[in-house]
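thread: overnight batch results

M.L. [08:02]
morning all. the overnight job finished for the chain we discussed friday. pasting input first so we're all looking at the same thing
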Amino acid sequence: MSLWIIRLLFLALCTLGGYAVSEVQPDLFGAWQWGALAGFGFGGLMIAFDEMLKGFSLRAFSAATFGLFLGTAIAWMVDRSGLFDHVEEERVRWLIRLALFLGFGYIGMVLAMRSNKEDFSLIIPYVRFASQTKPENLLLLDTSVIIDGRIADLIESRFLEGVVVVPRFVLKELQQIADSSDPARRARGRRGLELLNRLQRHPRSEVKIHEGDFPDEATVDGKLVRLARVLGAKLFTNDFNLGKIAELQSVPCVNLTELARHLKPAILPGDTVTVKVVREGRDKGQGVGYLGDGTMVVVNHGQSLIGREAEVQVMSLHQTGAGIIVFAEPKPLAPAARA
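M.L. [08:03]
and the structure it wrote out:
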């Protein structure tokens, strides 16, 4: 939207410029209407040219310029070689020179745009253009991982280092969630916005709002994957489906939920853990508590421990679709404690 505002402003300035020229040089356009129309047409032509160059990067422009320069230099050397001196008619020679410069210029541009940086070492031997700064480690965040909040702890504790990239379309999605009429959804959106503010204020983290967008992509997930590929960034998400889409397209992706699952401490039968029993279990006499990572612990004979923290001994583990359920027994008190 902001780009079209700039285009409309440019079009208005071109129209005004055409009107001003017609007032200063009346014999050039005649009536001022023709001058304003000429300025409007020039502005429209430039906007159409800009639209045609959509997706044409500065890197491609530099390669095309270098190729044009190289092709023109070769055409000039061929022209100066005296190869066409026998052509006596000036008009024919002019056409030959025109074809020569246009042909070599076009071929040079095409070859330069198709080449990579290693090919330039053949043209300029012994010279290699290397970046003087280390490449940025870009951390591209999606909506789910921003709302989750654990990414901020990883960045602030320096487990993750790099530039945090938040696309403008993700920020808009967060704002829509924060403005939702559903209280729970609104709270999630506001928590995500607060997390971004927290990262921006932190001295060790750098947050950049990326303005890039892909209008031809209908979904936010598709835009995220394409942006990660274009920037060479690593995508962070909690969305299982988005992670699989990124994996299929060879885009590096980290799912924080899977990472947390892999980092859970291994609990084995016979281990002793401390858990707070918070409610009754399904069977009589059972109590249920949760470890810090959310693992459910069913304490047999633990109904009397509800509301208290207790040391329990792991008896067995049961794997379910939602995770692991730990079955434990209250650890017997030492003789001194019973006394």
